[in-house]
């Protein structure tokens, strides 16, 4: 699979890039690792004259820590997970994309289900970037036909010896997986289910075949090397690796557990004290263009929330595992947003689950 999708229509819609940004010739982008086609950055720089400086993080928690330590005055565009936005808004770490009562040009291209999400009901702070699913990746030679269940990670009778990992850096997601396995549902919130989830995570950490908490992209590499036999991964990451080398990654399978898992949405937002806010808005308008949104999806092998871009993406992105089928969609839920005392409880239980 080539990560170069020709910008045959790159000249279309360039009026949105006319420049109130002459004095803002730099954009500091804070993004997940390897989450944007370098060709898109190069094209944006050529079209606008704005130089893009890339910085990376590997979890929402890492991003939040950097922003609270002054990064909200250092970075111009961030790419958080949608459910994390209320924490950023509540902490005053992001700014609206447009004045109240106005809308950022280009939002009309967004699919209806992503226009006014729970994490940003008025669509003031975000535009969707990509969406996908989180599930279990595993070695098909070790388990040719596993039951699609979180039990592969949490039940020592199902997996008593094969090395496995849990996802690094996301307390609420990990508690969600434990809650799903325990019968509370992936979207559990509250003291009782979280206490049981924390206990299960703590017990799981003590098992001899538990390797540790691993980033989703590292999970796939460790599966390919045989370091682990099961772990948590994102559907697009695996699709990307399979397209890159079926020989290296062909033995890796993927499923959405029957107890339920996460449909996530990553979004574009602007930090509260962004040094180049007009350049940031120019970049977000650029990312909303259908040709650009399609190229982004083709590069990352995830699903675009841009309705006008769907016809332009690779056909494989309209089929499983990238585009979930009806049965799989029924297993997916959004991660609830939490704040205040509930968030403090989550952090406390997470710290205890990792330290016991």
Automatic annotation (TrEMBL):
Among InterPro entries, the record links this protein to:
SBP (IPR006059), Sperm_putr-bd (IPR001188)
Question: What protein name applies here?
Answer: Putrescine-binding periplasmic protein
Q: Which residues form the signal peptide?
A: 1-23
The yes or no answer to whether the keyword Transport is present is yes
Native organism is Modicisalibacter luteus
Pfam families in the record, alphabetically? Answer: SBP_bac_8 (PF13416)
Function statement: Required for the activity of the bacterial periplasmic transport system of putrescine.
User: Gene3D superfamilies under this entry?
Assistant: Periplasmic binding protein-like II
> Is Transcription regulation among the key words of this record?
no
């Amino acid at each position: 699979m080539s990560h170069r999708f020709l910008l045959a229509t790159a000249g279309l819609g360039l009026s949105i890039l006319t420049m109130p940004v002459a004095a803002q010739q730099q954009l500091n982008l804070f993004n997940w690792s390897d989450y944007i086609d370098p060709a898109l950055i190069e094209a944006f720089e050529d079209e606008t004259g704005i130089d893009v400086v890339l910085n990376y993080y590997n979890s929402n928690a890492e991003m939040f820590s950097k922003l609270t330590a002054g990064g909200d005055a250092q970075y111009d565009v961030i790419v958080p997970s949608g459910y994390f936005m209320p924490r950023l808004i509540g902490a005053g770490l992001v700014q609206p994309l447009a004045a109240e009562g106005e809308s950022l040009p280009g939002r009309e291209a967004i699919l209806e289900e992503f226009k006014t999400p729970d994490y940003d009901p008025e669509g003031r702070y975000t535009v969707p970037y990509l969406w996908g699913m989180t599930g279990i990746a595993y070695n098909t030679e070790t388990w040719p036909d596993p039951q699609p269940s979180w039990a592969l990670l949490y039940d020592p009778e199902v997996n008593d010896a094969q090395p496995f990992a849990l996802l690094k850096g996301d307390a609420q997601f990990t508690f969600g997986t434990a809650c799903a396995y325990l019968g509370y549902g992936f979207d559990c919130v509250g003291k009782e289910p979280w206490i049981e989830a924390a206990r299960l995570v703590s017990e799981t950490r003590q098992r001899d075949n538990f390797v540790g908490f691993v980033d989703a992209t590292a999970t796939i590499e460790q599966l390919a090397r045989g370091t682990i036999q099961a772990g948590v991964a994102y559907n697009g990451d695996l699709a990307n690796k399979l397209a890159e080398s079926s020989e290296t990654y062909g033995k890796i399978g993927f499923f959405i557990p029957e107890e339920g898992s996460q449909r996530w949405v990553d979004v574009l937002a602007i930090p509260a004290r962004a040094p180049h806010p007009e350049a940031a808005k120019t970049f977000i308008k650029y990312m909303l263009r259908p040709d650009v949104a399609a190229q982004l999806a083709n590069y990352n092998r995830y699903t675009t929330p841009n309705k006008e871009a769907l016809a332009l993406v690779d056909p494989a992105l309209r089929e499983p595992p990238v585009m979930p089928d009806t049965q799989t969609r029924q297993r997916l839920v959004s991660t609830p947003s939490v704040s205040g005392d509930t968030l403090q409880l989550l952090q406390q239980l997470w710290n205890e689950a990792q330290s016991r």
